[in-house]
Recover the amino acids of this structure.
């Protein structure tokens, strides 16, 4: 009768197996991360496509694009009001939000506090809840897309409270061509650092201060909370300051940026002064994703010049597209 002795793994054999598993995991994890990143980027592109097409459908129904903001400049909840994103909700199959809020964008319970999936980019991990909650005020819904003020605002109105009401049309306003003009770019849900402390000695997302934010239903009261970029005159020589607090405010004055200095940021750190709320920001290291006025979406390299960026932001500058576009 034969017996077979069973040999256990030696320590060296176990270490070799563990090392091989570690190497395989080291190769697999980056690949999985790349796949997830690509999927999130594609979802972000799809969201921007839907937003751009919703604007076109609004244009078909109303003969113009929606305004950046119409309505009262304060928290008046009796006068009908709308941000550019609120205006296109019916064309994103979200008309119920408008009906429930009776056409008032500032409605505290039925509109402005809602996180909307289509208005959020899954690549942006700073505002995973889709809300901006300062702990001492009503929550607001955030968005990761910003409207081009040169299109949806009225830059020719000057630095005053009326410059939010744009009436852009495809035929007359965008004379540079719809394939050469940006409607929307990306923006962080939280960006920058104010001197406003977190309430009652608490912390905001682990920080002792509250950041600026991009709020899809926000009005013109404080422009640094509005989801927009290129806030200034059409010539690119003056950034507007009308929609902001004075220098003594803990929020600080609004400082719009136009011209070559309005170029977007690529993956800035969100919770410090390096993140500039006055420009667009992208969470994608590959570059900024933008919606064009023809409804298409494209990725813009972070290597383009500020002058080129301003060329495709302005709708009727008459410039020749530079070679780095």
């Amino acid at each position: 009768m034969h017996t077979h002795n069973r040999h256990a793994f030696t320590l060296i054999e176990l270490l070799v197996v563990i090392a091989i598993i570690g190497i395989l995991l080291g190769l697999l994890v980056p690949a999985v991360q790349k796949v997830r990143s690509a999927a999130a980027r594609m979802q972000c592109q799809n969201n921007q496509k839907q937003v751009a097409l919703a604007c076109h459908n609004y244009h078909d129904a109303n003969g113009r694009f929606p305004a950046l903001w119409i309505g009262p400049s304060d928290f008046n909840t009796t006068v009908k009001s709308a941000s550019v994103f609120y205006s296109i909700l019916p064309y994103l199959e979200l008309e119920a939000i408008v009906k429930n809020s009776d056409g008032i964008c500032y409605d505290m319970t039925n509109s402005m506090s809602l996180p909307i999936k289509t208005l959020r980019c899954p690549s942006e991990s700073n505002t995973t809840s889709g809300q901006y909650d300062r702990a001492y005020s009503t929550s607001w819904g955030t968005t990761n897309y910003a409207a081009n003020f040169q299109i949806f605002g009225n830059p020719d109105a000057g630095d005053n409270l009326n410059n939010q009401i744009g009436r852009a049309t495809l035929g007359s306003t965008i004379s540079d061509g719809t394939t050469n003009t940006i409607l929307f770019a990306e923006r962080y849900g939280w960006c920058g650092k104010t001197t406003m402390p977190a309430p009652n000695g608490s912390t905001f997302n682990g920080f002792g201060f509250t950041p600026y934010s991009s709020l899809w239903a926000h009005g013109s009261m404080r422009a640094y909370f509005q989801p927009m970029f290129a806030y200034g005159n059409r010539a690119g020589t003056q950034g507007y300051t009308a929609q902001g607090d004075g220098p003594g405010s803990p929020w600080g004055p609004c400082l719009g940026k136009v011209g070559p200095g309005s170029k977007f940021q690529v993956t800035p750190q969100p919770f410090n002064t390096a993140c500039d709320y006055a420009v667009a920001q992208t969470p994608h290291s590959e570059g900024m994703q933008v919606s064009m006025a023809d409804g298409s979406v494209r990725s813009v390299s972070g290597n383009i010049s500020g002058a080129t960026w301003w060329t495709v932001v302005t709708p009727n500058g008459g410039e020749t597209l530079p070679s780095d576009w």
In short: The chain has one domain: 13-313.
